[in-house]
Design goal:
mainly alpha
Amino acid sequence: MQNNRRSLSTYAFSVLFLLVISLSYDSLNPYLKIFGLIFSIGMGFAFLKFRGRGRPIRIPKAFVVIGIYLLYCGFLILRSPQPLPGLEKWSISILLFLAFFIISDSLEAGWSNKTWENALLNMAVVFSFLEIALAGVWYLRWVAIAGKIFSLPPVGYRLYGLFIGHANVFSGYINLLFPIIIVRLIQSRKTGQRLLWGSVIGLFILVQYFASSRGGWISAVAGLGITILLIRWPRIREFLQHGRRAMAQRKTLKDLSIFAFSSVLIMALGAIFVLQVQFSPGHAPITSARTGIWSSALEIITQSPLFGHGPGSFSTLFAQTNQLPPGFSTSHAHNALLQITAQSGLVGLGLIIAAGIMLTATIISIYRRADAKERFRLSAYIGAGVAIAIHHLFDYLFESPAYTAAVLVILALALRQSKDRDNIVVSPRQGIIIFLPLLCRGAESRARFNS
C-alpha cells in the first residue's frame, strides 16, 4: 500500500511539473506566467532543501558545457535587436536547464523510469484527444456546409498545436514517445496490453497525419526504424552470421518478419501521408519551402559569424532581411544549426556540438554496458534521439518549453545509468552554490520581463 501511494504521488508530481511548464512558461496570459514563475522558484528551493542531504548531486559533463553555453547567451542579450524578448527566452532556458536536475535527481532518489514516461504519454494522449476533437468539429462544420456526411472537403485540416505551440512541435513531441510505445508493445504479453498500446499508436499516427509535418514524418520513420533495428539486431546479426541455421529457428524468423513488416508499414504510411500534404493549406515542397528561409539565415549569420546576434534575435532580423513584419513568416530558421549560429555565432555552435558529442558518447557507453532488458528501454531513448536530430534539420522546436522539457526527461532517463566518470559529482552544499544563483537570476529576469 505504501509503495502504491508513493507511486501515485510521484506520478502526480511529474504530471503537474510538466503541465505547469507546458501551460505557463510561454503563455500569453500574464497570470499564468507569474504562476509558473512562483512554481519554479518553489520547486527550486524544495529541490535544494528537501532532497537527501547526504546524496551528492551528479552533473553530466555535457550539461556543464550546456550551462556554459547558456551563460554565454546571457552575455549576448545586449547584442539582440530586441533585448526584452531575448531576456525572456534566456530566462526560460535557465529555468528549463535547472528543471533537468530536478528530473535527474528524482531518478537518483529511486523514482521509476515509467513515472516520467507515463507522465509524458498521458499528457500527449490528452492533448491528442483535444486536437482530434477540434478536427471533428471542423469536419462537422464542413458536413453542414456540404450537406453530405461522406463528402471530402477541398482542403485538408491541420492541427492547432494546443499547449505545445505549433503543429510541427506537436509532431516532434509525439516522435519522442513513439519509440517508447513500440518497446512497450513488443514487451507486452497480454492481449489487453497489446490492444492498449496499439490503440495509442493508432491515435498518434492520426495526430501525425493531421499535423502535416514533413520533417516530423521523416524523423518519425528514422526514430522508429532505429528503435526496431536495435531491438531486433541480436537476431538479425545471428541470421547474418549463421545463415540457414539461424533461419531455421522460429524466433529468428519471427524477428525478421516483424522487422520486414514494420519497414513496409512505415513506408506505406509515409506514402499516405504524402497525399495529406497535397491538400493541407500553406504547404510548399519541403526543400523549396525551406531554402528561402535558409538563405536568409545564412545572410544573417554572415553579418556576425563569430558571436551571433543574441537570444530571440532571429525573428526580427529575418523580418528586416525580407522586409516583413516580425513573426509574419517565421520565428526561426527551420534548422537547428542555422538557428544556433545566427543567435550565438560559431562560438555557441561549437559549444552545442561539443555537448552533443559528449551526450552521444555517454549514451553509447551506457548502451554497451547494459543487459538485454535495459537495452530495450535504451533503444527507445536512442530512437527518440535520432528523431530529434533528424527533425531539427528541417525545424527548430526548442522554442517550445513543453517540447524542451520532454527532451530533458528523455535525456535524464537515458543518462540514468551513467558512470561517475561521465559526471561531475558535487556535494549538496556545492550544489546550492552552483544552482541557487542560476535560479535567482532566471527568476529575476523572468519577473523583470513580466513587469
